[in-house]
Amino acid sequence: xxxxxxxxxxxxxxxxxxxALVVLAVALARGGDAAATGPDPARLTPPRxxxxxxxxxxxxxxxxxxxxxxxxxxxxGPDPAASLADLVKRAVDGxxxxxxxxxxxxxxxxSRAGVFFRALAxxxxxxxxxxxxxxxxxxxxSLVTGGVRRTYRGVTYAVRGDGTVAAVLDGFGVIGDxxxxxxxxxxxxxxxxxxxxxxxxxxNRLKGDRVGLVYFDLLAFGDxxxxxxxxxxxxxxxxxxxxxxxxxxxVAVISAKERAxxxxxGPRPGDTLPxxxxxxxxxxxxxxxxxxxxxxxxxxxxxxxxxxxxxxSAPEAGPGSGSNPGAPGAGLSLLSxxxxxxxxxxxxxxxxxxxxxxxxxELLDPSIDQALPLDALNRAVRRLAxxxxxxxxxxxxxxxxxxxxxxxxxxxxxxxxxxxLDPSATRPALRRIAKALDRExxxxxxxxxxxxxxxxxxxxxxxxxxxxxxxxxxxAAVGRAAAIDALDAPRKLGTTPAFRAAxxxxxxxxxxxxxLDLRTALRVFDRSRARRSSAYRTARPLLxxxxxxxxxxxNRIRRLxxxxx
Length: 565
Description:
The chain is an alpha+beta fold. Helix content is 31%, strand content 21%. It has helices spanning 9-30, 61-75, 80-93, 101-105, 136-143, 178-189, 197-203, 232-245, 356-364, 375-385, 389-393, 423-438, 480-488, 497-505, 518-526, 534-543, and strands at 51-56, 109-117, 127-133, 148-152, 155-159, 165-169, 172-176, 212-216, 250-256, 260-264, 349-353, 397-405, 413-420, 444-447, 453-457, 465-470, 473-478, 514-517, 548-554, 557-563. It is elongated and about 75 Å long.
């Protein structure tokens, strides 16, 4: 597979993880007491940012208890808070001794913290940390020292030798690069995120029982559509479409469980939505507590077993399944078990899309979203799969699962497994695709000795690519062994302890859609170009705390969990 590159999203994720861990450290050290009060970090955040996070530094009640239990489980030892403070220190200043949490931060640290990222790529993508200060004078003596002193709009800040800038402003210690600190000053002196309608209308709907929240402005994702990732003209067109459609931001609620930090990007399992918002399928998880959510559940999912859905019910179709899921044209699965647990056991990344066929059909249908630039995409699909691909091939596609495995970034293996709802339509299409790719520059296609398979040499891919169809499975894989295991691996992901632990973290009504073995993935990233990224170096010591990430969705529920153990 192609060489891994550093991702601009790591910066945002790293910042969110830093804040989440600071929350847990202080919760453990102080204990939960009262609900978070004090200044709002959104008041020092520019009105249009890519990512913003706000957390309570000593959450009360069950959230504080769970946070302390999670931190103790993750770090162990006689003083987990001290261990985490050391991790934060290494993440912030590389362990060079410029910042000491116990002496430089803890004495003045208040009840809330925030972080914002003005962009996801380029010079504005550095994070700016906002730490509430109980004692501004003490915070100023700790932060605004050394380096070069400068003043902006009446605020004095210090620029250290490594480029880090620190200031104290309106009850917060502000730490970041110079552009980020000045942006915080501008927000405090004028219009801020806290005053924007886009922020208020979404945050005001959230319940108060949370550790914190993360706010994503989808408009900023145009930043990552740079040459090299997508063609220059396509990137420009997509950014223009984003600007025209101006999609709504996404807000995730952060909560703590004993074994995981949980991010909910929609209603949480057990939430009761206001009247008129339940919508279709609300009785399947949007309202009312799913069995066992409050107490851990008496019927946990058994991944990898036929019929296992996590709630003991019969197999469920994907969202929008209608009355006849799995029929040709529906683009939805009727498999007795999800594809994800059937992937090879050594996959460290697994992503499932249960309604893949339906989504592809909607993507290629110009009548559904006229804002998308679909002409070039439809031409490419017709060139590869034939003039009637939309009519014949796409309706025959059901669920899909993708996996990545291997430890060498230069020779990763992986593949995609797609359910065929109509093999008589998908087998000829696979032949057409192999022949069409043979005519593309740099590609070479030939019949493989594997039954029903084609072997291809692809540009910039170090191993052969295999396309094969067998029974009701279609496989596209990098590497011969990956192609064979994608069809029927001798050991399956759903039987591994890590996947089973991740599945148990979710509510019993949910089953995993995506899974990441963080420990294995980090070892791979350590050998890739990602290690050169300052964002990765910041997040790396903190990510060590977590063992896995798991994502699940059902109806309007979208849940991501970062688990330990």
